[in-house]
Automatic annotation (TrEMBL):
Keywords, comma-separated and alphabetical: ATP-binding, Cell membrane, Kinase, Lipid biosynthesis, Lipid metabolism, Magnesium, Membrane, Metal-binding, Nucleotide-binding, Phospholipid biosynthesis, Phospholipid metabolism, Transferase, Transmembrane, Transmembrane helix
Record protein name field: Undecaprenol kinase
Ranges that cross the membrane: 29-46, 52-71, 92-112, 132-149, 170-198, 210-228
One annotated GO molecular function: di-trans, poly-cis-undecaprenol kinase activity
Membrane protein topology class: Multi-pass membrane protein
Binding locations of a divalent metal cation: 72
Cofactor(s) required, per the database record: Mg(2+)
Gene it is expressed from: dgkA
Cofactor note as given: Mn(2+), Zn(2+), Cd(2+) and Co(2+) support activity to lesser extents.
Keyword ATP-binding among UniProt keywords: yes
Length: 232
């Protein structure tokens, strides 16, 4: 009987994780980001301490999101009316998730920056002297392809709604072009960060789904990479 209760508790815990994944968009983003970071870590020689810090940071973000979800569910169970204390409780829980996420970004930056910087320098050494006009050509081609795909799907306007996200495609196309023509790793990092913010804003405003934004970002990156590599 005791073993049965232990198994039930384990299943209930898994159900809680699954529920959070199904109902919380941010949780799905956290999971996707965690998977991407873990896959990226396979290509670098991380120390045991760095791996432990990485695992702890990922766990912290996911735990904070689950606690935030549980607090929101408990408050909604108690009352469906506006109350200032309920607002404070939800905002504080959301703030905890925000701090955990900022910490995760900082940890990832500290762990991967030097390693990515070395790889970036090697890759970009061959293409830093490319003509700047390739950026504008790449951008124009990305725009035309986005419009063509949206016309094929028949949904959304060229840069509002539909598949794929035009804003994400352009933002990541520009970030990729900057990565090729810039000699400053900080500028490359900031441009990528701005591209991510553009993509995130399209999701937050509910103009695009996560899949549409990812598709647009992948389209912008791949086309720009192809053009720069081919011309070079």
């Amino acid at each position: 009987m005791g073993n049965r209760k232990l198994v039930d508790s384990f299943n209930d815990a898994i159900d809680g994780i699954i529920y959070t994944l199904k109902t919380q968009r941010n949780m799905r983003i956290h999971f996707a980001t965690a998977i991407g970071v873990l896959l990226l870590s396979l290509f670098f020689k991380l120390s045991k301490l760095e791996v432990l810090i990485l695992f702890f940071t990922i766990s912290l973000v996911i735990i904070a999101e689950m606690i935030n979800t549980s607090i929101e569910a408990a408050i909604d169970l108690i009352t469906d009316r506006y109350h200032e204390l309920a607002k404070i409780a939800k905002n504080v829980a959301a703030g905890a998730v925000f701090i955990a996420s900022l910490n995760a970004i900082l940890v990832a930056y500290i762990i991967f920056f030097d390693k990515l910087n070395l790889v970036t320098e090697i890759v970009l050494h061959r293409v830093r002297q490319m003509p700047v006009h390739l950026t504008f050509i790449s951008l124009l081609i990305v725009i035309l392809i986005v419009i063509s795909i949206k016309a094929f799907h028949g949904k959304g306007r060229p840069f509002r709604g539909g598949m794929p996200s035009g804003h994400a495609a352009i933002a990541f196309s520009l970030a990729t072009a900057i990565a090729f023509i810039s000699e400053n790793t900080l500028i490359i990092t900031l441009s990528l960060f701005l591209a991510v913010l553009v993509a995130q804003s399209r999701i937050e405003s509910q103009i695009h789904s996560l899949f549409q934004v990812i598709a647009g970002a992948a389209l912008g990156v791949c086309i720009t990479l192809l053009i720069f590599q081919t011309i070079y």
